[in-house]
């Protein structure tokens, strides 16, 4: 058993707990501990990606209890990719926050570590109830992070966010209760095995459970009727927190992939799945359209970015609902791109807002702007990448999605939604950019404040990653294709996790 | 016993949902509490309903399933802490926004 595998959960847990106990530490030490932990997580992320590339499934039995009785952590290419992405994103968020926004309230770095523990745990776990627990860990940390810094807007957005997520947790438990009552297990692999052999009479309840789970993950991922908390919450949060939240909606997407393609996907034809995916397709498309309209109608760059998150969720879920291996690989690539780019835009909104004399990031205010050329160039590059124009990762990912969806039925709906929302994004971003950088009010007095090199460099490095993703697209694509192939072989997952247990005929200790 | 449990679940859940849909934070918090009670009871009953059988193997012929009890224990702890958090948050929002409406302001206030 490889103990390195649990490190992505243990490191942030210990760091966070230590930071809580040592709350009298000066801010410099807190920052270096937070950054150090994130650096370690990046290293473990790289290890996980390499390890998952060598062995398809790496298992970790917590407390050495054998599945399906104990909780098992499963590392495959999909979870490894998500781990590395989370680690990189968190490193940049903590670096950006360390330039000052972590001082707005107390315990920022401790909360960040608990948030990372929850996210990493959700990506690694192979047990459905454990997934619920990690969801709660990441949620309670995110409640506190959203409110970090205080203020009326955050209280108001926080209230909505907390209430809808508490209702979501209740639904999650209901779904788990139904599944346990029917199958007597909550281990994902064992569930998949039992559900595949489930009698016809259980099918309506299984469908109910899968739809409940879709609602729960839909709240996390911001699927259409459940997304109205998102724009207010994300635009109220402080910039590094909002940037980290870019991964939170993807946790919902990841959970949907695991549950619908693995847990409910083993059965031939997967009847419990079809109902859920049939609901997902139209709602995801409308989510995508609504996101595009929101982008065009947003009054500030942060709100615009929040709607960009919704657009990305719409694309991811629409591709997921088509239930195709090639398309899933393409949408995983898009996930990498969109997570990094929405995070860049949240940070950029804060960065530019700081150098405008009035109005922060609101479009309606015309204001003098310092460092027009530097900030303008960064905004242009980020805009080109976000709008999926070449030569950045956005272009590669969207081209791949369009290409691999072209052989599926109904692909024209997807094409239309993606292309029109892309056009709306271009229009909104060019309007924002031209208003801010081409026609800023002339400054009449006072000298320009110096450019914050640390914050600017953080954003530039993130943009460079987006560019690198396009340059090294081929190896990344190969890796993601292998990841998607594994997801579409749920029997391999079940065999790897249950192993001997299945060969003994599924009879456990009595 | 099944009927009693089913009726209790139904009453808890429906009052919970009704209260969550109210406009004041206090009733929403109460609703969340009732809903989580209902959910916990539901989770507990998923181990099948029996009386006078402990969750210990070997003591008696028919033991009850201990797993839902462990699950519900976890769920109770989590929902308890979340309720505490949402109470504090609702108080904070009521003080800061000077309104206990869930949107932070009462849309009908001007009309009254």
From TrEMBL, chain A:
Entry's Gene Ontology BP terms: ATP synthesis coupled electron transport
InterPro entries with a match to the protein in the record: CPA3_Na-H_Antiporter_D, NADH_UbQ_OxRdtase, ND/Mrp_TM
Chief subcellular location: membrane
Domain NADH:quinone oxidoreductase/Mrp antiporter transmembrane: 126-419
Keyword Calcium on entry: no
Its membrane topology: Multi-pass membrane protein
GO CC entries: plasma membrane
Record key words, sorted: Cell membrane, Membrane, Transmembrane, Transmembrane helix
Coiled-coil ranges per UniProt: none
Annotated Pfam families: Proton_antipo_M
Location(s) in or outside the cell: Cell membrane; Membrane
MF-aspect GO terms: NADH dehydrogenase (ubiquinone) activity
Endoplasmic reticulum as UniProt keyword: no
TM region(s), chain numbering: 6-25, 32-50, 70-96, 108-125, 131-149, 161-182, 208-230, 242-266, 278-297, 304-321, 327-352, 373-392, 412-438, 459-477
Family label: Belongs to the CPA3 antiporters (TC 2.A.63) subunit D family.
Protein name (database record): Monovalent cation/H+ antiporter subunit D
TrEMBL record, chain B:
Subcellular localization(s) per the UniProt record: Cell membrane
Membrane topology: Multi-pass membrane protein
Ranges annotated as spanning the membrane: 6-21, 28-47, 67-91
Pfam families: Oxidored_q2
Keywords: Cell membrane, Membrane, Transmembrane, Transmembrane helix
GO cellular component: plasma membrane
Predominant cellular place of this UniProt entry's protein: membrane
Signal peptide: none
Family: Belongs to the CPA3 antiporters (TC 2.A.63) subunit C family.
UniProt-recorded name of the protein: Na+/H+ antiporter subunit C
């Amino acid at each position: 058993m490889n103990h390195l595998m649990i490190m992505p959960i243990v490191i942030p847990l210990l760091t966070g707990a230590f930071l809580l106990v040592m709350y009298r530490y000066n801010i410099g030490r807190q920052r270096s501990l937070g950054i150090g932990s994130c650096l370690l997580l990046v290293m473990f992320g790289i290890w996980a990606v390499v390890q998952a590339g060598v062995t398809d499934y790496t298992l970790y039995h917590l407390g050495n209890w054998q599945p399906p009785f104990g909780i098992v952590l499963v590392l495959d290419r999909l979870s490894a990719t998500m781990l590395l992405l989370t680690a990189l994103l968190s490193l940049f968020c903590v670096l950006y926050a360390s330039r000052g926004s972590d001082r707005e309230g107390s315990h920022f770095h401790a909360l960040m570590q608990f948030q990372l523990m929850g996210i990493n745990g959700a990506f690694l776990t192979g047990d459905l109830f454990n997934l619920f627990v990690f969801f709660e860990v990441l949620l309670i940390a995110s409640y506190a992070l959203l409110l970090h810094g205080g203020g009326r807007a955050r209280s108001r957005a926080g209230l909505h966010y907390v209430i809808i997520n508490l209702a979501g947790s209740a639904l999650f438990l209901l779904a788990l209760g139904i599944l346990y009552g029917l199958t007597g297990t909550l281990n994902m692999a064992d569930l998949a095995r039992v559900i595949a052999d489930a009698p016809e009479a259980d099918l309506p309840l299984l469908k109910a459970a899968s739809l409940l789970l879709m609602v729960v993950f839909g709240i996390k991922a911001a699927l259409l009727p459940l997304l109205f908390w998102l724009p207010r919450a994300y635009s109220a949060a402080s910039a590094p927190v909002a940037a980290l939240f870019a991964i939170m909606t993807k946790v919902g997407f990841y959970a949907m992939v695991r549950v619908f393609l693995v847990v409910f996907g083993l059965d031939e034809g997967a009847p419990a799945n079809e109902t859920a995916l049939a609901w997902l397709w139209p709602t995801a498309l409308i989510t995508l359209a609504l996101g595009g309209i929101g982008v065009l109608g947003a009054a500030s760059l942060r709100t615009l970015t929040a709607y960009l998150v919704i657009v990305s969720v719409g694309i991811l879920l629409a591709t997921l609902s088509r239930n195709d291996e090639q398309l899933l690989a393409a949408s995983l690539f898009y996930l990498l791109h969109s997570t990094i780019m929405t995070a860049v835009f949240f940070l950029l909104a804060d960065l530019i807002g700081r150098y405008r004399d009035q109005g922060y990031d609101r479009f309606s205010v015309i204001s003098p702007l310092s460092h027009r050329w530097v900030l303008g160039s960064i905004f242009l590059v980020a805009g080109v990448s976000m709008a999926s124009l070449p030569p950045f990762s956005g272009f590669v990912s969207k081209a791949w999605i369009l290409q691999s969806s072209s052989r599926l039925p109904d692909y024209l709906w997807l094409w239309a939604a993606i292309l029109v929302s892309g056009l709306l994004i271009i229009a909104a971003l060019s309007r924002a950019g031209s208003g801010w950088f081409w026609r800023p009010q002339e400054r009449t007095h006072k000298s320009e404040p110096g450019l914050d090199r640390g914050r600017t460099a953080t954003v530039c490095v993130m943009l460079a990653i987006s560019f690198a993703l396009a340059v090294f697209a081929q190896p990344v694509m190969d890796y993601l294709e292998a990841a998607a192939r594994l997801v579409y072989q749920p029997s391999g997952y079940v065999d790897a996790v249950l192993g001997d247990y299945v060969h003994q005929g599924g009879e456990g200790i009595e | 016993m099944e009927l009693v449990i089913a009726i209790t679940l139904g009453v808890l859940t429906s009052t919970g949902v009704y209260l969550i849909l109210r406009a004041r934070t206090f009733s929403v918090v109460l609703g969340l509490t009732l809903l989580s009670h209902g959910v916990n009871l539901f989770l507990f009953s998923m181990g099948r309903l029996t009386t006078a059988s402990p969750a210990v193997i070997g003591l008696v012929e028919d033991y009850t399933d201990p797993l839902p009890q462990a699950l519900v224990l976890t769920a109770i702890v989590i929902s308890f802490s979340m309720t505490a958090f949402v109470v504090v948050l609702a108080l904070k929002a009521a003080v800061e926004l000077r309104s206990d409406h869930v949107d932070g302001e009462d849309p009908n206030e001007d009309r009254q």
